[in-house]
Amino acid sequence: MLASGCAFLESRALMKQLDSCPCYCNAYTPERVILNLTEDPSQSQAVTWRTCAEIEHPKAQIEPAADFPDLKESLRTIDAVSEKVILGNDKAVYHHSAVFKALKPDTIYVYRVGTDDNWSEWSQFRTACKSHDPFEFVYLGDPQEDIKSMCSQIFRVAYKKAPNAVFWLFVGDLVDNGDEDADWAELFYGFGWIPAMTPIITLPGNHEYPDRRYIQDKDYKLAHLWRSHFTLPENGPQGLEETVYFIDYQGVRFVMLNGNEKYEEQAIWLDRILSENPKPWAIVGIHQPVYSTAKHRDNLRLQNLLVPIFDKHSVDLVLEGHDHTYCRTYKLKNGVRVGDNNKGTVYVISVSGPKLYQAETKYKGLMAKIETGRQLFQVISIDHNRLIYSSFDVKGELYDSFVLEK
């Protein structure tokens, strides 16, 4: 479908630019459009996209949604920030980002991105409420492999099951090779138009980093395509911007951690951020599990650093991936099961992709449910003092559920 735009290019200069384009589209057309939540999603919204050709003066336009098609009455235009990105084949693409600010809470907006000659379609999003109104979101573990063929299905089932989810939360390993643009192309193919309408928050897994077995420590750093594709909050520890951050959303403090590097710096920051939490709920996301369920894996360093902080601040839920299994613990404190009416933390590991491991039983005594062999997604709803967690399979059938109450 995208190839049709190329057939009508007339100028030789434009054809030459298209020859260097790794995709088969009009080189100026916005693609990979994705919304990301900001630190204050009631008043701002980030959007990122790319073009295969360099463009002058990329822009984003926005205004409140209306019942009539004329979108010019209160239209705002803002300039975007651009970045030239060199791919593995030495060809260049151009990523652009903008942050819509001074928005009204609980309001539907329409927006588009591009230039005067090449705009994206109009899409919508709704800002968060200032108050603790009920909401639901989707949580997904590692897509990673066979995204086009196998993960597209679960993305679409998740959207069908929870069309009103205010955002999707991924806990890393979105792709198998973070430096390979072809992998990111598969991810966005699988997404379709969903991330242009439903904001994404995410954190890096180990596959967004190089393999430690084959590189020196000085070369161990986040894949350059990560920050190019996302515009995430930069309120985390220095040097970990857009990989460690927090977002407050309608009564919940969401804290995203990076399980790949700088553990001690994150632990100090996490203790402070949770000490200052004004919200009744606290949910943490991290790729590497605290209580691992995969064979030959047991991250005691993370466990020893993080569990005391989770316990100290009564974190309600920790969402994880990495182990390519499914598990849900009982409510735990200090590594021990506590009663439903006691303060404690539930830890969950899930996987949305087709790469599946056999579940290890080392921590079986802590697990309310543990299994392998399923692609899953989770819908989590929060209504004041009640959290309802539901896990679904690729058929949209309920697989696991529990309720937390304050």
Written as H for each helix and E for each strand, in order along the chain, the element string is HEEEEEEEEEHEHHEHEEHEHEEEEEEEEE
What can be said about the biggest beta sheet? 7 strands, mixed
Could you list the spans in which at least 5 consecutive residues all have pLDDT below 50?
Answer: 1-20
Shape: globular
CATH architecture classification of the largest domain: 4-Layer Sandwich
Q: So what's the CATH class of the largest domain?
A: Alpha Beta
C-alpha end-to-end distance: 51 Å
Determine the CATH superfamily of the largest domain: Metallo-dependent phosphatases
Average pLDDT across residues? 92
Number of helices: 7
Which class best fits the helix and strand makeup? Answer: alpha+beta
**Beta strand %:** 25-35%
Please count the beta strands (DSSP E, at least 2 residues each): 23
CATH fold descriptor of the largest domain: Purple Acid Phosphatase, chain A, domain 2
Strand order of the largest sheet: 12-13-14-15-19-16-20
Number of domains: 2
Assembly state? single chain
Q: Give helix % range.
A: 10-25%
Rg value:
21 Å
